[in-house]
Amino acid sequence: MRGAGTRLLATTALLAIRAIRRHVLRSFLTVLGIVIGVFAVVTMVTLGKGATQSVHDQVSGLGANLLTVLPGNGPGRGGGGEAPPPFKPEDVTAIRGQIGGVTAVAAQAQASETAVYNAANWSTTVNGTSDAYLDAQNWKLTAGRRFSADEEESGKSVCLVGSTVARNLYPGQQPVGTTLRLGSISCTVIGVLATRGQGGFGQDNDDTVIMPIKAVQRRLTGSRDIRAIVVAADPAYDSAAIQLSIAELLRQRRNIQGGKLDDFTIFDSRQIADTLSGVTGVLTAIVSAVAAISLLVGGIGIMNIMLVSVTERTREIGIRLAIGAVGREVMLQFLVEAVVLSCIGGLIGLVLAFFASLGLSAMLGVPFVFDPLTNIIAFAFSGLIGVVFGYFPARRAASLNPIDALRHE
Amino acid sequence: MSEPLIRLRGVTKQFGEGEAAFRALKGVDLDIAAGDFMAVMGPSGSGKSTTMNILGCLDVPSSGAYLFRDHHVEHLGRDQRALLRRRYLGFVFQGFNLLARTSALENVELPLLYRGEDKRRRHEMAMVALEKVGLVPWARHTPAELSGGQQQRVAIARAIVTHPDVLLADEPTGNLDSERSVEIMELLTDLNRTSGITVLMVTHEPEMAAYARTIVHFRDGLVESIERKPA
Hints:
The structure holds two protein chains of two kinds. Helices cover 58% and strands 17% of the residues of chain A. Chain A is an alpha+beta fold. In chain A, β6 and β7 form a beta hairpin. Chain B is α/β, with parallel strands linked by helices. Chain B has one domain: P-loop containing nucleotide triphosphate hydrolases (Rossmann fold). In chain B, the strands form two sheets. Chain B has a six-stranded mixed β-sheet, sandwiched between helices. In chain B, strands 2-1-4-5 form a four-stranded antiparallel β-sheet, with helices on one face. In chain B, α3 crosses α4, α3 packs parallel to α5 (148-160) and α4 packs across α5 (148-160). Chain A binds chain B through residues 1, 3-5, 7-8, 11, 22, 315-316, 318-329, 402-403, 406, and chain B through 53, 56, 58-59, 78-79, 82-87, 89-91, 93, 97-99, 101, 110-111, 113-116, 118, 158.
């Protein structure tokens, strides 16, 4: 009897497809809700995963476990009170010497200047820092060489240009060896930085010129102030612990008493990544939940049509019962029909979602992440909707009295 | 004649309860021999349709006994009765009741589907049944493309494809002109003679009843008389 049951299921599926083909337009309208629902959910989840992936890529591109120390307590500091003091070169030395588990420490001083080469000019940010910064950021060169210890120590006027600067000032030309004017000073280009793309906040990482920090301090900012300290943590160490000991050290050096708040902030790249991913995740979940409602509506649509279909085919059900179909078999027929319908809808939705997310992710500049699990779950869910919303009409069909059903006009 | 295939003993059927109750059958006794061709006649409301529904296991009696091949079947449940119909009974209706937009062949294959026959065997058996009713050239046509007489012959093929013991026909010629009616009656008679299938037929028309070997008259929920033609 087992073989007969399987055969019956196969035959029932065939009957269902025939019944659906008989009413192509109606079947299409019926599954439209499921199509839209699956399409919306899968597209949203796929784009959301792409966005999360993109955040992770960018942050890991910054170098693993990067701590950035900035003066002031947080980016949202209001205008009140005096500006917190900047860091001094001694702070950098202290961190390098006293904190364990740190692979690179680099000070940063910044100035905005207009870079000029031949007739072309370009406004950019000049970053004064050291070789350690490139290590911390895991930033490679495409041409030339990095700073020598001697150039760093003496604050020689040499520089590395970012790819955006190189593209704008040196179209089709090799920058290495040329002399670049930065505002009132000039420097020799010794290297070109590899392209890093957009940062986590949309800024262009490649729109920069890097010089030894002493050169920037002496010739551009005119002070020994340090705008930021970049610390690369050894991945084997706990970055949160390193963050705490840096904070401890700086509180001491900046003379902050017990109860007072820090007048500096330490950003952990991994925390930023997690926060951004969290935000993307929550947004994805909310949008997907809204999209899931159309799945539900789609299910109700299927139930509605199946009920109509049961009424319309009352005589057919009567015939089947009279020639010896048991209730179970009639029920199976209508259930399979509902499931086949909703699965077709789900499949169409998946195909549409695939192409839409392919196009949209290209448009939005996030990577396209095809997640088989999302697709499988969405497809299974559309099938489940068929079962749930097909059950009631199918049971109604199975419970018809054959005598009444045969008389039905 | 051998042991009766079917025996009804004191069968009653009541519809509704209390004041509105209507007793359609008031104690029917009836024996049907295997291989008989029985016409069931009677005015509307005489109980002939109710009796046919009970005989066809589409309905159950309120009281009394129904013995099919010496087995009591009056207490069987819905699904058991369906299985009984599947195995032993075939139905032909006044309104043909074929599945629309479905070929004659597929219509005839339908009961085999529920028997779990595989595709090849379904096709074979259905073609044999269609041959018996003379519709092999029409196998691929849908009911809409067939005449009334042809549709009823498809219905008969569907009823006999499983080789049932009993063929129940409810006014099988009710929707046909007299020429087609004669064809259908000749077909039924032929099937009854050659394959020994027991035929139970409800009819209003004495000309159609004349084809039967036994004629049962119903009146007011009781068997009024039974005519048996000499063999």
